[in-house]
Amino acid sequence: SHQIQLLRRPSGLPAPDDFTLQAVALPEPQVGEVLVANQWLSVDPYMRGRMSEAKSYVPPFALNAPLEGGAIGTVLASRHPGFKVGDRVSSMLGWRDSFVAKGEQLTRLPATDLPPQLFLGALGMPGMTAWAGLHQVAKLQAGETLLVSAASGAVGTMAVQLAKRVGAKVIGSTGSADKVAYLKTLGADAVINYRETPDLDAELARLAPEGIQVYFENVGGAMLEAALNHMALHGRIVLCGLIEQYNSNGEASGPRNLAQVIRKRILIQGLLVSDHWQHYGAFLAEAIPAFEAGALQSEETVSQGLASMPQAFIGLFQGRNTGKMLVKLD
Ligand code: NDP
To answer: What sequence ranges are listed for the domain Enoyl reductase (ER) (predicted)?
Structure first.
C-alpha cells in the first residue's frame, strides 16, 4: 500500500517536494475492521489550512504521517457486520491507495447509479456547502441577485445551479474564458473573468445596477472589496472561503472598505459546512433526483494516480480545475 505524507509545512504555495510517497505494509483486518481500496481521492482547498501549524477548527496534519481527506473506495475484506466485500464506501482516509480501518470510520454510499465520485463533489461536502450557504445561511429568494466567486469550482458550480433553481439572477466570477463559457451553460446570467477585468468595480456596477443582495464568497481580497462596494442595502454575505489568502504567509489582503458594511447594514456570516450535516439528507433528497433527471450537472478535473495528488492539490491555487478536482486510482 502507498500513502502520501507531509514532509514539511509549506511556505506560501505548496511545492511537490513538501510531500513524499511512502510504501507501507497494511495489517490484517481485525474484528470490527475493514480493508478498503480507494478509487477516488478528493482534492480540497481546506487541506492547505491543515498543512500549517496554526490552530483552526480542525487540528493541523502531522508531519511524516498519512494526510487525510475525502475518499471513495471499495471494500476488499470485511470483519465488520455492517460491510461486505464489494460495498462502495466513503471515508476521510484519502491521500492513500488502500487502508484498514474500523467500520465506524466508513459510510456506505447511497444507492444510485450516479457516478460514485459525485459524492466527493456536487453530492458531497462541496455541494452541501453550496446548499447550506444559499438556503440555511443566506436564505436566497427568487428575484434576488447573487454573486458567486470561484464560481467554476466544486462549491461554485453547485451554488450557481442551486441559485438558478431558486429563481435568482446569478453573476459568477472565475479565472478563464473557458470557465466563463462553461458557467453560461450552467445558466449563469453573467460571468466575470476576474483575470481579464481591470476594473471589477465598473464591471459589477454594469452587471448589478440595482445592487447585489447575496454574495457567496469563496475568494476574498480584491473580489470581496469590489463586492462590498456593490452590495444592496441589507445585503447578505456568506463567507465560505478566502482562497486568495490561503498561501499568504500572514500578510493581510483587505478589504479596506468595511465602512460599506455599516453604511448598507450588510450581514456577513461565516459558513462551516460541518455545522449543517443534519440537513445532508434533505440536500440529497433534492439533489440526487435532480442529477438523475439531468436537471443538475457536474464537471470534474481528474488526474491519474496517487503520485499526482500533490500536483493536483497545488493546481487548486492555480485555477487548474473546472468543477471538482479529483485523483483517480487504478
Ligand atoms: P474549487 O473547486 O473552487 O477550487 C479552487 C478554485 O479557486 C480554483 O479553481 C480557482 O478558480 C480559484 N482560485 C484559486 N486561487 C485563487 C485566487 N488567488 N484568487 C481567485 N480565485 C482563486 O474549490 P472548492 O469548491 O472545494 O472550494 C471553494 C471555496 O470554498 C474555497 O475557498 C474553500 O476553502 C471553501 N470551502 C469552504 C467550506 C466551509 O465549510 N466553509 C467547505 C468547502 C469549501 P479560478 O479559475 O476561478 O481562479
So the answer is: 12-327
What is the DSSP pairing of strand 169-174 with strand 145-148? parallel
The CB of 58 under 6 Å from ligand 1? The reply is no
User: Rounded to the nearest whole angstrom, what is the distance from the C-alpha of residue 243 to the centroid of ligand 1?
Assistant: 6
CA dist 47 and 61 (Å) reads 9
Q: From the CB of 106, is ligand 1 less than 6 Å away?
A: no
pLDDT tier at 56, thresholds 50, 70, 90: confident
C-alpha cell at position 181:
463559457
Which of 42, 155, 186, 300 has the most ligand 1 atoms within 8 A of CB, as the residue to mutate?
155
| Interval 126-148: pLDDT, tens | 999 999 999 999 999 999 999 99
pTM of the full structure:
0.98
Q: How many angstroms is it from 87 CA to the middle of ligand 1? A: 31
Neighbours of 138 (CB within 10 A): 25
Q: Please report the pLDDT score of residue 253 as a whole number.
A: 85
Find, among 68, 76, 132, the residue nearest to 105 by Cα: 68
Q: Kindly list the structural domains of the chain, giving each domain's residue range(s) and its CATH number in brackets, ordered by start.
A: 2-120+299-328 (3.90.180.10), 125-274 (3.40.50.720)
Which of 176, 215, 218, 246 has the most ligand 1 atoms within 8 A of CB, as the residue to mutate? 218
Q: What does the pLDDT read at residue 252? A: 76
Cell 454594469, residue?
Answer: 206
**Residues 235, 211: contact at Cβ < 8 Å?**
yes
* Rounded-to-integer distance, Cα 185 and Cα 289, Å: 20
Backbone angles phi, psi at 313, to 5 degrees: -65, -45
Ligand 1 pocket member 299 (CB < 6 A): no
189 CB neighbour count, 10 Å cutoff: 17
* Measured distance CA(63)–CA(325) in Å, rounded: 24
What's the Cα-to-Cα distance from 98 to each of 26, 73, 264, 276, 306, rounded to whole Å? 8, 8, 52, 29, 11
Q: How far is the centre of ligand 1, averaged over its atoms, from the C-alpha of 226 (Å)?
A: 18
